Amino acid sequence: MFGAGKKKLAIAGATAVAVLALSGCAGGDTDADTGDAGAGASDATLIVYTNSNSDGRGEWLQAQAEEAGFDIEIVGLGGADLTNRIIAEKNNPVGDVVFGLNNMFFEQLKAEDAIAAYEPSWSDEVPADAGDPADGVYWPLVQQAIVTVYDENTVTDAPSDTDDLATDSAYAGRYEVNPALGQATPQLVLASMLTRHLDEDGDLGVSDDGWELVEAYYANGSPVVEGTDLYARISRGEVDYGVLPSSGIAARDEEYGTTTGMIVPEYGVPYVTEQVSVINGSANEQRAQEFIDWLGSAEVQGAFAAEFNAMPVNEGAVAEADPEVVALLDELPRQEIDFGFVSEHLGDWVEKVTLEYIG
């Protein structure tokens, strides 16, 4: 199903996240005057924030949660926007649970005391270092690689290094680039590039080479077309390359008849591990904890993996994942990224890129 292709450097990523409107966002049916607002009623509506509700995931979760007896309202936003929203609301929380964000964003929420520690019932079924081993504030659900992809049926000149996509004029306009830095994947792409060019004496801790690469990447790429899938553009010959989370490859190969090749560097590709946590100050804290116990369980994560070609972190759910997905992630080396360092600098990096390179 997956063509390995030339495995070199992956530096970019773009998958648009569907946004669901927030309506009726009262934080549950609890009485703030009772002194027990943190417990929450068993029939309270849980406001679930996520950036992982696209491609039918939100609808699937809504249906499964209802069957399990949970009344939830899903609010979907891009990763950075969602993180900023939760931080802005921390003194008067609206949401009860947040999931789908990666370590980078959860580190920001943790630093702002916007999420609360809770050890879920399945904590011993996931690797301790996959979430927040220091404090147990957030816990891992799903992991996937972010890879630069192309169709082996049409591309015969994939570069030996994905930096060439940005710097070699032969590839100008042939790769898709997502300038929406309010989303999780484009921010991770930026972090993946810049963490390879750190320089304590450089601008914002990055060398000139790093900033020149980023500038070229945005200048020479073909911007995402809103509402148009990367593989639709590849099939029409509009672009040849783009970035996609690994979980989306199989479905697109089936839909578009492509044979996906990947460009993977020796040092690895960025991985995202989607996490979950209770929002600090939730009016339905106990019910939110019960929801997390359910969501991260081997049963639910196994069903999710089977439905969406995902790779669960819960070891009890791995058997339900597609063997080819398991093999793919075993094969792809993981890029080492210091998410704590990135979270401290990302805001400044995004601001510079937005003002100077995207406009």
Automatic annotation (TrEMBL):
One Pfam assignment: SBP_bac_8
**Signal peptide segment:** 1-28
**UniProtKB keywords:** Signal
Q: Which SUPFAM superfamilies match?
A: Periplasmic binding protein-like II
Question: Does the keyword section mention Amino-acid biosynthesis?
Answer: no
- InterPro entries cross-referenced by the UniProt entry: SBP (IPR006059)
- Give the domain of life: Bacteria
Q: List the protein's name.
A: Extracellular solute-binding protein
